[in-house]
Amino acid sequence: MTQSSATRLPEGFIFEAANPPPNALHFHAPEEGPEGIFCWTGPGAEAVLNIRIDRRYPLRAWLELANFGNPANRDALSLIVDGDLYPLMRRGPGQNLLAGPILPREGDEPTQLVIRVPHLHSPPAEGHRAAPLRGIAIKRLSLIPPD
Prior knowledge:
Blueprint: E1 13-16, E2 31-33, E3 36-40, E4 46-51, E5 59-67, E6 78-81, E7 84-87, E8 89-90, E9 96-102, E10 111-116, E11 137-144
Antiparallel strand pairs: 1-11, 2-3, 3-11, 4-10, 5-9, 5-11, 6-7, 6-10, 8-9
């Protein structure tokens, strides 16, 4: 990812499930399956990332999923960027979603990304231990300038 010469902040952000940032909140540990490496969100309905990124220009968010969790999440997911709501819309036949354009803003303070997952589920519990609540299985989240 390149850096802006005016702000010295990256022009984009990429969350990879294989290497989640240490400040990521409400994400389960990475797992691996037939669809690759992914992280479930949860146990709450909002997963949070605080990032430092150049916000002087519009951005687009691309979310690549391994699993929607509850099927009701297919058309109900949203991204909240610094308090502004952006619906995540499906693109194509797969499990990829798009939000934006995300409006620019002044300043270089951190940007807060919240992935809102309204429908949580629990995988089947093994033994007597309660299974953790999960939302969606994220492979990758990119916040980048539009092409």
